[in-house]
TrEMBL record:
InterPro entries xref list: PP2C (IPR015655), PPM-type-like_dom_sf (IPR036457), PPM-type_phosphatase-like_dom (IPR001932)
Protein name according to UniProt: Protein serine threonine phosphatase 2C
Record-annotated PPM-type phosphatase domain positions: 33-394
Gene Ontology molecular function: protein serine/threonine phosphatase activity
Length: 395
């Protein structure tokens, strides 16, 4: 049997089996006109995908608004499940309320997105802090047994704590009735707008920001907020521990360290590797280090003169695949964006097929052997990152 570069064996599937198995494993589907795939081929339950996506069309006062989102969870499923369930409705309600007074200006929608996302994150923190209304002073008076008894009820209290311990990126797109597009991003998922010009050439416009420790702007921001703390970013990670610089949840990096040492480390289920927590805890001097303030970009598509346009939202698993297959630097998201638009705008791409699945297969290497080497690996541990793609035609 063939062997992957990691030394694991895999089975080469032939057509049409490889296409069928890829579509099944990626849960390929079309919702309205939106194509979606979301894949984690490792079948071990604990390694199941922490990606989530939401596709919804909202009939509102001025017409239909399209909501598209990709959430990439980390350290567990609690936070990503919470925001996938609550953030869309919070944005819907805020948007509906704002439209009651008439049309919203573009900056108003941008600010609405920033505020709702930040409010959802703040609510996660407040819910946990409410378990200890006396704050740090109350924690100092409680034994570990008292803390554990309060937080590990297997129900409401446990959920409040676990949502703080886990985290998620946020990538949200709104397409308004007049074909305005807003993209709000937290973390390192990616949004790109593909635009076909009157000449027939295609352009790629990046609409997300790369919020991780490899981005010079993000590193400079964090260092400016924590002067004199040389290890606030270490080895391209915040406090040497987490790759993303902005996220929902992850209150280990937003609260004083006592909440980690006394609350989070007494929670069940705990962290996968508690020793990593102890390693960075001493660097947590002036929190918060992670931000929940999203970057929002807006474009009015008709003003761009495009004859066709589509929007792609993708978790960073697609960036990893693109780096491996096309030899691209994953730290250069604009380069990946151009490649994705190039693939999706091919003249021979079957337009009736799932566009997200087409892009996924190409990023996996396209051939039966290359795709099989990602689908059929004999391993109980994951060998590729969770990968989600949402493709939506705009014009």
């Amino acid at each position: 049997m063939p062997i992957t570069v990691y030394g694991a064996t895999y089975t080469v599937l032939e057509e049409p089996q490889v296409s069928t198995e890829l579509a099944r494993c990626a849960n390929a589907q079309t919702i309205e006109s939106t194509s979606v795939v979301s894949i984690q081929p490792c079948t071990t339950y604990s390694e199941r995908s922490q990606d989530r996506f939401v596709v919804a069309d909202w009939p509102l006062a001025d017409g239909t608004w399209k909501f598209r989102a990709v959430f990439d969870g980390h350290a567990g499923h609690d936070t990503v499940d919470h925001i996938a369930a609550t953030l869309p409705s919070a944005i819907h309600d805020a948007l509906a309320q704002g439209l009651t007074a008439g049309p919203l200006a573009a900056p108003d929608v941008s600010e609405l997105l920033r505020k709702v996302i930040a409010d959802v994150d703040e609510g996660i923190g407040k819910a946990m802090l409410g378990l200890f209304p006396g704050g740090v002073d109350e924690l100092a008076q409680l034994s570990d047994e008292d803390v554990a008894a309060r937080i590990n009820d297997g129900g409401v209290n446990s959920a409040k704590v676990l949502r703080c311990m886990r985290g998620s990126t946020v990538l949200v797109a709104l397409i308004g009735p007049a074909l305005d597009v807003w993209v709000a991003s937290l973390g390192d998922c990616q949004a790109v707008l593909g635009l076909k010009q009157a000449t027939g050439a295609w352009d790629a416009q990046l609409l997300s920001v790369n919020h991780n420790g490899t981005d010079a702007g993000e590193v400079a921001r964090i260092r400016s907020e924590h002067p004199g703390e040389d290890e606030c970013v270490l080895r391209d990670r915040v406090l040497g521990a987490i790759a993303v610089t902005r996220a929902v949840g992850d209150f280990l990096f937003k609260l004083p360290p006592v909440y980690t040492s006394r609350v989070f480390l007494n929670a069940k289920p705990g962290f996968q590797i508690s020793s990593k927590i102890a390693d960075f805890l001493g660097r947590n001097l002036t929190p918060p280090y992670l931000s929940a303030q999203s970057d929002v970009q807006h474009v009015h598509v008709p003003s761009l003169g495009a004859t066709e346009a589509f929007l792609v939202l993708a978790s960073d698993g697609l960036i990893d695949l693109s780096g491996d297959t096309y030899g691209l630097d994953h730290r250069e998201p604009a380069i990946c964006s151009k490649k994705w638009v190039e693939i999706l705008s091919r003249a021979d791409r079957p337009t009736a097929e799932n566009a997200a699945l087409y892009l996924l297969r190409d990023a996996m290497g396209w051939t039966a052997d290359a795709v099989s080497s990602q689908l059929t690996v004999e391993s109980k541990e994951r060998w590729m990152d969770d990968t989600t793609i949402v493709f939506t035609p705009v014009v």
